Amino acid sequence: MTAVRQFLFRTQGEDRLSAGDIATYLYLLIGTFVMFGPVIWLIFSSFKPESELNRFPPRLLPYTQSTIELPGYDDPLPLWEVTREDGSIDIVAEVARFSVQYQMVDPDNPSMEPETVLLNNLERVEEVRFSLENYAEGVISFNFLRYLWNSIFVTVVATLLTLLVNSMAAFSLSKYKYEGRNVFFLIMISTLMVPLSVILVPAFLVVNSVGWYDSLIGVIVPAIATPTGVFLLRQYMLTIPDELLDAARIDGASEWRIYAQVILPLSAPALAVLTIFSVMWRWNDFLWPLIVLSDSNNYTLQVGLNAFRGEQETQFHLILAMTVLTLLPITLVFAFLQKYITTGIATTGMK
Amino acid sequence: MGSQTLPKSDETPRRTSGAGRTWWESSYYGVIGFIDSGFSRLQKLIGIKGMAYVFVLPNLLIFGIFILLPMLLNFAYAFTGGNRLLLQNRPAVGTQNIEQLFQCEDLLDYTSCREDKFIRAIGNTTWFVTSQVTLMVGVSLITSLLLNRQIAGRAFFRSVFFYPVLLSPIVVALLWSWILRENGIINAWLVGVGLERIPFLTTNFWARTWVVLISVWSQMGFYTLILLAGLQAIPSDLYEAADIDGASNWNKFWSLTLPLLMPTMLVVLVLSLIRAVQVFDIVFAFTDGGPGTATLFIVQYIYDVGFTTSQRLGIAASASLVMASVLIVFTLAQIGLRARSGEL
Predict the structure, then answer these.
(1) Cβ separation of A193 and B274 shorter than 8 Å?
(2) Å between A125 CA and nearest CA of chain B
(3) Of B175, B188, B323, the CB nearest to A198
(4) What is the CATH number of the domain that holds A242?
């Protein structure tokens, strides 16, 4: 108990919480609710059956009607509470229904003749159940594994290529003096702020004429020469002393070896930050893959989810479940790497 | 140039040899060595300076083909008309496209314009950028200031605010349209406290408001982190000195924290400004520009005109040109401001 007290009250070096601290914690707790609440609500909703989703006001937990397996019936039977005329309550199982007339049997005595009960005397027996039915039904038309694979492929290959190509360019721009160097750098930096979305039409035409329409390579390659990456890495490499390179040259290392075995290991922090950015960009990229890809076998998760949303229109129970599937991978990655991701962006993130 | 003695290709430099390498280290050095056998020979031919060009080449090539060339093409398309796809089949029309975009009886009334949707999109985008950036910078600043206090669980809260940044725009849009629908949780709460339900996504005012709110929700964590880093870079002895001078918390904030945080604030301002101008995917999946054209923004206009039914590439390219010039102004402003703050 005292440990908890000490932990909580470890503020401003004083022994009690000041008003400012209380307000801070209040803000942060509300913030936590606002940031996580919607996602948690989505996850709970995704386990609900369709009938429960249309209920208003909605309930937090996924309730479904309880069922019971009885001898002599093939399917599990839904359970109801029936209110008798004398006010007593019995649990009965539904065998069949004709409009508002329900045929019910006593679960303890299933072989008896069914009785007829009117709907307005009935109340569902419900239980909290995290059913995977929405997921099972959703993945029939939402090819999750295929989209996941495409997304992972695009993200990993694009990130590796971005790291390689950008770091080579940054190495050249920071460690050599040659004709045109400043021109190259200026041209790249001047487009730092002009995104692909501005040149959508012609960029698409170029990709199309290279023959990369509807292919993952067409999604990957056009955006790997990121000005941000070159800029970030170049600024970092400028801080590596040139003497190291000279020493390596005296040792007989080629320029390639200097790049691969001296510069790259020393630039690890900047490379890590670029990796985080690149994974975030690529995983969440939407507009460009939407335009380039047309066959649904090539869809990434985001494009696939968007198409699924269009196909299913009002089938919310399926859309919700597939949305949860889509946010699951990045959430898991974040859960394990959040410390590195947040400190990485915070420390070297933006110069 | 090329005067240096180079190692034979099968020789590995001393510093990399030695036992105790993990498998991935050995395979990394294997790949390096393999590429080196080719690159060393190349270096003999073209010299060290030549290698500098070799290193910059892949990036430059991809950049040239997929960014620079499209930019130039975009220029060309902006001045051609017709509905053919290939440039050589399109008649030159001069500045007609750009004139058409701004052809209005009254520029302030978008309904009087020939391309009413374009003017509407510009108006909407201006409104979105102003309100979203203001809110974004404000909320991020407050959050980072609070996270910078000596509080328990700081790392946890930092991650909490960052988490939505990782969610894709489509997920964010679907998530919030689920929460905001007529039978959704927010309306349930409104009914619970005795108010009427609000059709959030089909009323102009609410659709526009929520577009701003969810985009702030999904991105503020990023700017909070950057601002927090800026705050933590302020040396703590400055505050100690201020304490000795008897400065109040309020004084310290206005005359210490805020001025020293200005460079970081500027970065955040410009980054969020540029992202706000480009807003597309969240809105595309959230309201698709609706209701009507209430949340139609400029990138979606370009997408609609260029890629959906009408395929008026000339108009789309001209609109891109207008947008690019705005972004370049922002960029130049940033460079200018940076240079000025560098002088000070």
Answers:
(1) yes
(2) 23
(3) B323
(4) 1.10.3720.10
Per-residue pLDDT reduced to its tens digit, B183-217: 889 998 999 898 888 999 899 999 999 999 999 99
Host domain of residue A67 = 63-128
- A119 lies in the same domain as A141: no
Query: Of A74, A95, A128, which one is at a domain's C-terminal end?
Result: A128
Q: Nearest Cβ partner of B167 from A195, A206, A327? A: A327
- Domain ends where: A76, A109, A128? A128
Give chain B's domains with CATH numbers: 14-78 (no CATH), 99-343 (1.10.3720.10)
Considering only CB atoms, B55 lies closest to which of A168, A206, A252, namely A168
User: What is residue A250's predicted lDDT score, i.e. its pLDDT?
Assistant: 93
What total number of domains does chain A contain? 3
Asked which of A290-299, B90-99, B125-134, B218-227 is least confident by mean pLDDT, the reply is B90-99
A232 three-state secondary structure: helix
Find the range with the poorest average confidence among A185-189, A212-216, B252-256, B279-283. A185-189
The pTM of this model reads 0.84
pLDDT digit string, tens, across residues B130-174 = 999 999 999 999 999 999 888 888 889 989 999 999 999 999 999
Q: In B, residues 100-119, which contact A (CB 8 Å cutoff)?
A: none
